[in-house]
Amino acid sequence: MRANYALVTAGRAKLAAAEAALQGLLAGVRRECPRIVAGSPQDEASEKLTWEIAATMRVVAFHRVTGPIGAFARTVRKLRWSNAALTHSVHDYARRLNAEATTTAPDICADLRAWAVSGYTRLPSGTLPFINAFYPVQAIGMLPKRQLAPYVPRSLTGVLRRTNQLEGQLSDFEANAVETWGEIMDAVELNP
Fold it and tell me: Where are the domains positioned within the chain?
């Protein structure tokens, strides 16, 4: 619980930097590839590229907490509970968080350009591997708290309450990033 609190505290402290990174991504797209897929079809490929853009935004934003995520993962990797399922869940959460933090974001403009050059018939070679690798691992805020509850001493009740508040703020940040996602989609004129 303490390690998770440290992680979400670090995440909350980096929200302004994460927002700046997302705005930088938007500015780069507007500068490097405005209207790159104007007139493209709305199909399965456009849906996959939409997922790629959303996942790229998350990677760009959460790279600001790579260090704290690594520290969290190293801390919880050492922990064991009498409940093997709980141990597995916590370790899996840490592994997924660490995988998310170390994922490399693709070049959105290059991928959209490649799709356009193919006449909208072929997805870029990196799109499916990226979204297939990314979506199964996205994990922040997924610590199995219900499973952990019986093991949390009363002395950590306040930490748990504050952690939940901070996780709510991180979730709000992600929800608000939908506006930036929409601006990126509009800039490149991708139909989801």
Answer: 2-188
What ranges in 33-156 are assigned the alpha helix state H? 44-62, 66-77, 84-101, 108-117, 127-134, 145-148
Mean pLDDT of 13-22: 95
Lowest mean pLDDT among 26-30, 34-38, 62-66: 62-66
Average pLDDT taken over every residue of the chain = 90
Cβ atoms of 22 and 30 within 8 Å: the answer is: no
In sequence order, the 6+-apart residues with CB closer than 8 A to the CB of 184 are 25, 26, 29, 53, 57, 108
Q: What are the E-state strand segments in the chain?
A: none
CA distance 25 to 135: 20
Contacts of 150 (CB under 8 A, 6+ apart): none
With 0.85 as the threshold, say if the pTM is over it. Answer: yes
Distance CA 107, CA 125 (A): 12
- What interhelical angle do 15-32 and 2-13 show, nearest 10? 50
